[in-house]
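hey so i finally got around to running the thing on that chain from the lab meeting. sorry it took forever, my laptop kept dying and i had to restart like 3 times. anyway pasting the input first so we r on the same page abt which one it is
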Amino acid sequence: MRRRGLESFTGVASRRWTGAERRVVWRGFWGRASIAIEPLVIAGFFAVLPIALILRKQETAYLLAPIFGFGALAFLAYAVVLMVPCTRALLETFDRIYSVDGYVRYRADRLGRFHAAVLDHERNPLGEWELSRRPAALDQRDTWPALVEFCTYGGILRIDGRSTGVLPEHLPPLGVGAGARFAAAERDEVTGAEPSSN
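ok and heres what got predicted. didnt touch it at all, straight out
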């Protein structure tokens, strides 16, 4: 996120995260942790295996130890990479959610990436986040007035009381089945169909 210094938020209303909002982030964190367990176990196995071979005085131990050591480091790095974004999101829940009666601006940069920004009532940028795809709002207009709730890490959470999907209203335990639910909601939004109830 690009934003001006913290002094730019002095005139912006803020609130603490609610228990329900924090619970959604916790569920996502534990879901990701349940995925990261597998590479951690493999890293532990790859770290212990050469030690066991050396203790048993196996002839190939010194040949295999660097290979398994590298494998252990690779799986450990993978587990860390899996956990960094969700840990950062969890830590963000101890910060504030900001609310501003201002503007939302979408824009495309020269490289073809899309960005969403929150502007205050004087159209000064408070924060800007890169988007994963072109928003449908770019087809109508690039800036419009709105009541916006946002956080520094996650981006825009709600526009005029409607969730943007960054912080869903509900996440199943460990996030199991969330991908299919969000994909169906996105498909319904694109096609204009009524949201499915599953």
